[in-house]
Design goal:
mainly alpha; single chain; globular
Length: about 270
């Protein structure tokens, strides 16, 4: 029986990621900054892969391969459901923002992206890499390591806070989306941290309903990153969006109480 070690995993991830991103902050331009940014971004996935494949657990290794390779076992309706939930939250947010003087032009798509991407990485490459590498790390080991000891509801809360905090150094790395919104207002920075937590519930729902599939989480994460960038929402509207996603997360939990509150899986994730 494999023993998950969530504290060790997240400590290693934070030390590695934040060290590389501090390096990027100190050398805030050129190839040096880009290298630090990239190494920090791949840290969760790298540590998850090393943790899994240096373990003596064949069950853990087999589970990891299953979660990334078994695309034929995906449940498209739940992935599509995640897409529709996010699309509905965005539409509702824009409609509500009109009451506060925001423009109806938010219903259009912007050209390009709201940020340039750090160094040699373009914006599209950045959001794609972020979706893939984060999910390999978080769903490859991180989320299960918490769920092994807690209900999916409690796991979603714990992981949401950890996931939000992990992004912190990005607000000081030039060229990132996080750097852009910090320069606009500290309130937008705070909104980002708050928004991550309800988003964690939606992502957990997609992940678990697809049999704990990393691939499903990657597809959902990539969609969220892309639509958040391409829809012409203002940052004020994105604050409203946080409320809408929170409402969606509450509805998901209430309509999936058995999934979020059952404890049958505790101690038996690999079974």
């Amino acid at each position: 029986m494999y023993t998950y070690k969530p504290k060790r995993f997240y400590l290693q991830v934070f030390i590695a990621t934040w060290s590389f991103w501090l390096f990027a902050i100190l050398f805030d331009e050129g190839v040096t900054c880009t290298l630090g940014m990239f190494l920090g971004l791949i840290s969760p996935a790298s540590i998850a892969i090393i943790t899994v494949f240096t373990s003596k657990s064949q069950a853990l290794k087999k589970d990891f391969k299953r979660k990334i390779c078994n695309f034929w076992k995906l449940k498209p309706l739940y992935i599509l459901g995640g897409y529709l939930i996010m699309a509905a939250a965005i539409v509702a947010s824009i409609l509500l923002s009109l009451l506060f003087g925001e423009s109806a032009e938010q219903f259009s798509f912007i050209k390009g992206f709201t940020f340039n991407g750090p160094g040699i990485f373009g914006a599209m490459a950045t959001i794609t890499l972020a979706a893939i590498l984060e999910e390999v790390g978080w769903r490859g080991y991180g989320e299960d390591s918490i769920a092994q000891y807690h209900s999916w509801f409690k796991e979603s809360i714990i992981f949401g806070f950890v996931w939000a905090l992990w992004h912190l150094p990005l607000f000081w790395i030039p060229g990132t989306y996080h750097w852009e919104i910090r320069n606009m207002s500290n309130w937008y920075m705070i909104n980002f941290f708050v928004s991550v937590i309800p988003m964690g519930f939606v992502t957990t729902w997609v992940y678990v309903k697809n049999g704990r599939s990393m691939l499903a989480s990657i597809l959902f994460h990539l969609f969220v990153n892309f639509i958040q960038e391409k829809v012409a929402m203002t940052q004020n509207t994105k604050c409203i969006e946080t409320l809408m996603v929170t409402v969606a997360a509450i509805i998901i939990v209430l309509t999936n109480r058995d999934m979020f509150f059952e404890k049958r899986h505790i101690g038996h994730i690999l079974e």
